[in-house]
Amino acid sequence: MKVRIISGAVAVVILAVIMCFVKTPVFALAVSLMAAIAVYEVLKAVKTSHLEIMIPCMLFAFLFPLKVYVNNNVAVGVAVFIVLVIMILQLIRFEKISFSETAVAGFITLTLSFAFGSLVFLRDGYMGVSANYMENEGVFYIAIALLSAWMTDTCAYFTGFFLGRKKLCPKISPKKTVEGAIGGILGCVAFNVLATVIYNLTLPEGQSYPILLIIPISVLLSVVGMCGDLSASVIKRNVGIKDYGKIMPGHGGIMDRFDSVTFTAPALYALLLIIK
Predict the structure, then answer these.
(1) Secondary structure (DSSP) of 192-259
(2) How many other CB atoms sit within 10 Å of the CB of residue 257?
(3) What value, to the nearest 5°, has the Cα angle with vertex 33 and ends 90 and 40?
(4) How far apart are CA 140 and CA 156, in angstroms?
């Protein structure tokens, strides 16, 4: 427990430092690094051990969140080149690398790259929604994506510990309860409303983010975040592992801490593309 607490405290400090540079390329580089590590962790978990597949996948995951800093045509060209390299390597070494392994690696890489990249896209309003952003609204959305994932998990844990009776998904995650899930949703809404109130205090007079809008968004993201947590648990249960990695002693790997975020961030980004 001591190791877990110390490790968690160090992670919070690192996250706080990164958030201080949220409007700079430092933030995008940090996201890119986490994306590459997450891809490595999941590929290793599903027994994708061929370096000629893992390295291009990790490179793609690292570069994807940085595409906001380069010409779009260049970014697409690099992405296509990496995909072609993977497919050519699969053809060259078809006797050792099956197409199913390549397909799984590709799916994992694309989904996680976009999931982590969504944090950068939320900041910048990538693909055209930034014109409607208020001051620091992108930073606010990053906070909402993170809070929705982590506060749902935290509040669900404590609610389930004290009040949990009915199992939610006993075959996937035996400790999760219906009562915990409800507590997680309510906690997510409460923290996001508080974050919105604080954010509104920083805005110029006459501007504010509607509280009534953040409530249904929070409910949706909370449910989506729980789905992300359960999806990650399904993979771990299928491959017979407890954690994806050991980069955070007592907590596991990047994917163990960001499994819910990989659902809340792209979900919020997609929602903004619709409503903005």
Answers:
(1) HHHHHHHHHHHSPTT----HHHHHHHHHHHHHHHHHHHHHHHHHHHHHT-S-S--SBTTTB-HHHHHT
(2) 22
(3) 40
(4) 23
User: How many Å from the N-terminal Cα to the C-terminal Cα in the chain?
Assistant: 44
86 class by beta-carbon count within 10 Å (0-12 exposed, 13-18 middle, 19+ buried): buried
* pTM beyond cutoff 0.70: yes
| Other residues' Cβ atoms within 10 Å of the Cβ of residue 179 | 18
Distance CA 262, CA 231 (A): 11
Long-range contacts of residues 11-16, Cβ cutoff 8 Å, at least 24 apart: 11/248, 11/251, 11/257
Q: Which residues pair with 169 in a beta bridge?
A: 173
Q: pLDDT per residue over 220-264, tens digit each?
A: 999 999 999 999 999 999 999 989 988 887 778 999 999 999 999
What residues pair up with 43 in beta bridges, in sequence order? none
Give the residue ranges of DSSP H helices in the chain. Answer: 2-20, 25-45, 51-63, 72-92, 99-124, 137-163, 178-202, 211-239, 254-258, 261-275
Backbone phi, psi, residue 102, to 5°: -65, -40
Residue type, 171: K
d(Cα 240, Cα 8) in Å, to the nearest integer? 25
At residue 149 the predicted structure's pLDDT band, cuts being 50, 70 and 90, is: very high
- Which residues touch 174 (CB under 8 Å, ≥6 apart)? 167
- The pLDDT tens digits for 71-119 are 767 777 888 888 888 888 888 888 788 888 888 998 999 999 999 999 9
Contact indicator for 52, 92 with CB cutoff of 8 Å = no
